[in-house]
Task: inverse folding
């Protein structure tokens, strides 16, 4: 991982698969939102996100007909991404627009040499794209590497640039025409649209795809929503719509913005026939990225074990830290070495298990894909109430 990616986010993606990214969030300093609050846009307003685009000179000339033609096609690609965002089924409060910025340096033409180039050669300039960005003109960077060796293509989104900008890193083989496909057919423009979802703070939803066989606690698959963030096409989940609406006026995001999408406190209530279940043991088993499983191998303890009080309730005081723990100060987490068994250092959802008399259990799913949109859309205030009916 390059030094510029350590602070906030790293998302690694496959070139030709829309559902191909993962997000690493800063767990060292969650902090609070320190930016001066901005005025919330009016419903229906167009929110524009401006890119500074980087491209290698010889790639542009040898593969795409030179700067003039490249610029024309680049504008069309951004228009297609804008269409993809807004024409996909959604619950947006705004129209979101993706454009090439209008500054004199909106197209940064760097030069390596003719023909195929290695990722290492491209990365010299990609790293520079994490440097200071004029945020009066641009909101993020799209870095293009258009003539990579066969098998080395891939899209990703990294955060933590010097000006808090995200950088969408796009590596393509020379045989791939990034301008060939247009809406509604899947293409580079929609792959970039997926990456821009990360720019705006969304997780990869395919990490929530937990099959029944990977859930040793309740043996039930997680019913994830369809979404352009990796579980469907031409559809935004309620989670993404809520996050994009919430973050709309903030052009650069940090982990503080992720924290702000969660309620601060959760009240877990266990009832049976409408009455509180007192002194019930409640276990929280977490799901992991990459493995896409519930971490409950033999010998593992639950991530959290709590008991309800006389009112059949228990309280969790920091929901953000429940999902995104401080790794060095939290027990019962998967090891990070010698093999990283806790990719991206966060849980994606939980099986909540209530222990009943006679050794029986009741299990339900708890997911931030439900918590975040319900909280941001005003369906729940503080504390967030999660009721388990036996």
Result:
């Amino acid at each position: 991982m390059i030094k510029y990616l350590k602070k906030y986010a790293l998302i690694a993606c496959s070139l030709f698969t829309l559902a191909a990214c993962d997000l690493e969030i800063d767990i060292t300093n969650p902090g609070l939102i320190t930016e001066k609050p901005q005025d919330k846009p009016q419903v229906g307003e167009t929110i524009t996100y401006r890119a500074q685009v980087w491209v290698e000179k010889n790639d542009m000339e040898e593969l795409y007909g030179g700067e003039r033609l490249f610029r024309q096609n680049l504008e069309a690609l951004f228009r297609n991404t804008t269409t993809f965002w807004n024409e996909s089924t959604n619950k947006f409060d705004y129209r979101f627009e993706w454009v090439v910025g209008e500054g004199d340096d909106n197209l940064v033409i760097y030069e390596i040499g003719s023909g195929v180039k290695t990722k290492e050669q491209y990365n010299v300039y990609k790293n520079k794209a994490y440097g200071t960005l004029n945020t009066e003109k641009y909101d993020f960077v799209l870095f293009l590497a258009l003539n990579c060796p066969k098998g080395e293509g891939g899209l990703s989104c990294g955060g933590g640039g010097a000006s808090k900008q995200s950088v969408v890193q796009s590596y393509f083989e020379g045989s791939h025409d990034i301008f060939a496909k247009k809406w509604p057919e899947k293409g580079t423009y929609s792959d970039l649209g997926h990456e821009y979802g990360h720019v705006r703070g969304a997780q990869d939803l395919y990490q929530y795809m937990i099959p029944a066989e990977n859930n040793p606690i309740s043996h039930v698959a997680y019913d994830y929503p369809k979404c352009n963030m990796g579980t469907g096409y031409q559809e935004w989940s309620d989670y993404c719509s809520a996050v994009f609406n919430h973050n709309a006026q903030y052009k650069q995001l940090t982990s503080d913005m992720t924290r702000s999408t969660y309620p601060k406190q959760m009240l877990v209530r266990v009832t049976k026939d409408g009455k509180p279940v007192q002194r019930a043991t409640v276990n929280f088993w977490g799901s992991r990225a990459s493995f896409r499983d519930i971490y409950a191998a033999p010998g593992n303890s639950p991530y959290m074990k709590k008991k309800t009080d006389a009112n059949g309730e228990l309280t969790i005081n920091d929901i953000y830290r429940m999902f995104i723990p401080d790794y060095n100060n939290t027990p019962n987490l998967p090891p990070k070495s010698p093999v990283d068994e806790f990719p991206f250092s966060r849980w994606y959802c939980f099986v909540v298990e209530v222990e009943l008399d006679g050794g029986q259990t009741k299990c339900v799913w708890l997911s931030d894909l439900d918590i975040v949109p319900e909280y941001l859309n005003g369906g729940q205030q503080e504390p967030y109430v999660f009721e388990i009916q036996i």
